Amino acid sequence: MLPLLIAPQIREADAYTIAHEPIASIDLMERASKAFVGWFINHFPDKDQAISVYCGTGNNGGDGLAIARMLDDHQYKKINVKVARFSDKSTPDFNTNLERLKKTSISISEIHPGSGFPIEDCPLIIDALLGTGLNKPLEGDYKRLVDHLNSLDKTIVAVDVPTGFFADGEIPHGAGILKADLVITFQQPKINFLLPESGPYIKCWEAVNIGIDEHFVQSLHLPYLAVEEKDIRKMLKPRHRFSNKGTYGHTLIVAGQPETMGAALLSASACVYAGSGLTTACIPQSGLTALNAYMPEIMAIVRHDMQLPTIEWAKFSAIGIGPGLGKDELAVELITDVFTNYKKPLVIDADALNLLTIHRELWRSVPENSILTPHMKEFDRLFGDHGNWWQRIQTGIQKAREYAVFILLKNDYTIVISPAGKVYFNTTSNPAMAVGGMGDVLTGIISALLAQHYTPEEACILGAYLHGKAGDELALPNKINVILPSQVAARVPLTMAKLLA
Ligand SMILES: NC(=O)C1=CN([C@@H]2O[C@H](COP(=O)(O)OP(=O)(O)OC[C@H]3O[C@@H](n4cnc5c(N)ncnc54)[C@H](OP(=O)(O)O)[C@@H]3O)[C@@H](O)[C@H]2O)[C@@H](O)CC1
Ligand SMILES: Nc1ncnc2c1ncn2[C@@H]1O[C@H](COP(=O)(O)OP(=O)(O)O)[C@@H](O)[C@H]1O
Ligand SMILES: [K+]
């Protein structure tokens, strides 16, 4: 897992690396700038392109000065540097890099407090005004400059973070923030890059390694982690010789109403594709023909009118409940029946989450270590309205602990929060997956993984990764705009096979 540090921890890790590698601070800045330039020249190879580098007087500005010098070394011919002298203070590494830059032929100008802004005729701007040192929303000269740059319609490449963008914590409404086409960020994505609030300010980002001490970072035992492919490869278990369907569990999917049988079909079929040894769907009688026709591998427990079906609880190694289940009286009875009689962790989704919102007393019988899979609206219905995603994560941490459950908060970067307070960011999936029924497929996959004896924590992390990866494999190579949940479900075996190879 890639630990995601918050700004003060980034400073701590930088300082540790400087003291223990050891490396002089100015050389670490040189290394960071070189990593930036390495990525930059691959993507902006036109050396006749005119580039303006805007620098603050802190270390982000120091990076900007070093980057300008390195681009000059790489024969970029039309570079100019504009230093925003809005403060009397400057860091030693900024000063050193300014002296180094003065030895080149690059033109350097200064912008002073209250002054007008120079005409900008370069199509490409490198933003090195402020980085992770941001400690309050922009105002005054910085805000004016950022508003001015935003109005110019230029291509903006930000160093580490766009100026004015908080790397973590709440992003104040209406704050002045530079809108970057690309952010080349050091060592790790900043947590707020992974939240929807970054959408208006960051078109895309790339993290470049600058050699921060990894042992030190791991020793911090940080709560925020990004899931990487290597973690998934370690977690996935291959099927072994002499195994049989009993080895891989029997999953029950409790889902569907006559009008929403599709949710049950998607969920139960995804469960089969994700490797559950046996799959049974508990569905309304009117859906039986559809189920048998859609996928003969799935067995059924039929719900007749308003009658509770008889379920042999001990038969099932995992249960997923909720997709398309509805909120009528039978649904309430059914969920109560499941919660009371089944003692192992459940996967609780969609209408089952809505029922938990309406019938609060149900919370008392949610089995420990169950997995709740809300999207943003379901999350807010469960736990109250939230003004931003950072708050939502903090509430998730509190509620996961309070109820001893895993909360999988669906998003572009789906967030898995454990009862122990770990926050895992999934790194797969794409907007082609924004199609109704996609969450039902995820529920089926996670339920199947639980049935196959993955721990609830592993089932969440693996399930979100496989679901998103299958979607990426289908959509990304040909830039396909829309993919169907049924396609994602059917792709899962191949995605798993690739990860096991
Ligand atoms: N540490 C390292 O070794 C490495 C660091 N690296 C680079 O350093 C960057 C962090 O640098 P940094 O800490 O110097 O802060 P930076 O973002 O340049 O800001 C400068 C100063 O601005 C001020 N300020 C804050 N908010 C403000 C506001 N709203 N409006 C106006 N002013 C405001 C605040 O000063 P204050 O006002 O508190 O005195 C702050 O200190 C990081 O993003 C990366 O690019 C890399 O080279 C790798 C090695
Ligand atoms: N823009 C997006 N980028 C990445 N993944 C997405 C995007 N939109 C949706 N998804 C994924 O699709 C799924 C949608 O789930 P959900 O909203 O519960 O769908 P439904 O309720 O229709 O089944 C989630 O797993 C989510 O992560
Ligand atoms: K910046």
Automatic annotation (TrEMBL):
Entry keywords, A to Z: ATP-binding, Isomerase, Lyase, Metal-binding, Multifunctional enzyme, NAD, NADP, Nucleotide-binding, Potassium
Annotated organism of origin: Mucilaginibacter gotjawali
Chain sites annotated for binding AMP: 410-414, 439
Metal-binding keyword on record: yes
Gene Ontology BP terms: metabolite repair; nicotinamide nucleotide metabolic process
Protein name: Bifunctional NAD(P)H-hydrate repair enzyme
GO molecular function terms listed in the Swiss-Prot or TrEMBL record: ADP-dependent NAD(P)H-hydrate dehydratase activity; ATP binding; metal ion binding; NAD(P)HX epimerase activity
Superkingdom: Bacteria
Cofactor: K(+); Mg(2+)
Keyword Metal-binding: yes
Annotated gene: nnr
Assembly information from the UniProt record: Homotetramer.
Role: Catalyzes the dehydration of the S-form of NAD(P)HX at the expense of ADP, which is converted to AMP. Together with NAD(P)HX epimerase, which catalyzes the epimerization of the S- and R-forms, the enzyme allows the repair of both epimers of NAD(P)HX, a damaged form of NAD(P)H that is a result of enzymatic or heat-dependent hydration.
Family: In the N-terminal section; belongs to the NnrE/AIBP family. Belongs to the NnrE/AIBP family.
SUPFAM superfamilies: Ribokinase-like, YjeF N-terminal domain-like
Residues that bind K(+): 60, 127, 163
CDD domains to which the protein is assigned, alphabetical: YXKO-related
Family matches, as NCBIfam families: yjeF_cterm, yjeF_nterm
Cofactor note: Binds 1 potassium ion per subunit.
Catalyzed reactions: (6R)-NADPHX = (6S)-NADPHX; (6S)-NADHX + ADP = AMP + phosphate + NADH + H(+); (6S)-NADPHX + ADP = AMP + phosphate + NADPH + H(+); (6R)-NADHX = (6S)-NADHX
